[in-house]
Amino acid sequence: MNLEKVIFGFFVILACTLNFGFFIGELSDFSEHDAGHLFAAVVVNLIALVMKFGDRTHIGATHLATSMVAMLQLLAASLVWMWHVHISHLAMNGGTMSTIVSLSGGALLANLISVILLISETLRQTR
User: How many domains would you assign to the chain?
Assistant: First the structure.
């Protein structure tokens, strides 16, 4: 067993599941979406992004691209949240939370693609 592959797979799958945990729930109900979950998704996606820099293969480049897309989406969601609540000093509303959750949904799709790539790469190597 390759410990590096285990750690890589762990962070790719954890990034996807944390993002899913934030994403799931009513779009406009801000009580179902916690800032801590979004923060955890950002941190773990950042770790997964850093881990993908070393791979020089074509599938590694695709992994990196999906991770960059997820980070961009999650950072945008975080910025929308910060801007609305901490800079504009407005109460969270359904429209803003809908934007945040939608951006998180884009990141979730990128994370799902990364997990599918990970699974396909694993299946290809076992043959």
Answer: 1
Average pLDDT over residues 25-42: 87
Supply the pTM of this predicted model.
Answer: 0.89
CA 99 to chain centre: 16
State pLDDT tens for residues 60-95. Answer: 889 999 999 999 999 999 999 999 999 999 988 888
In a domain, 10, yes or no: yes
Whether 39 is in a domain gets the answer: yes
For the four alpha carbons of 51, 2, 21 and 109, in that order, the dihedral sign comes to: positive
Q: State what percent of residues in the chain have pLDDT above 70.
A: 98
Gap between the Cα atoms of 81 and 61, Å rounded? 30
Q: Say if 61 falls within a structural domain.
A: yes
Residues of 85-102 as b/e, b for ≥16 C-beta within 10 angstroms?
A: eeeeeeeeeeebbbbbbe
Domain hosting residue 80, numbered range:
3-22+34-126
In a domain, 29, yes or no: no
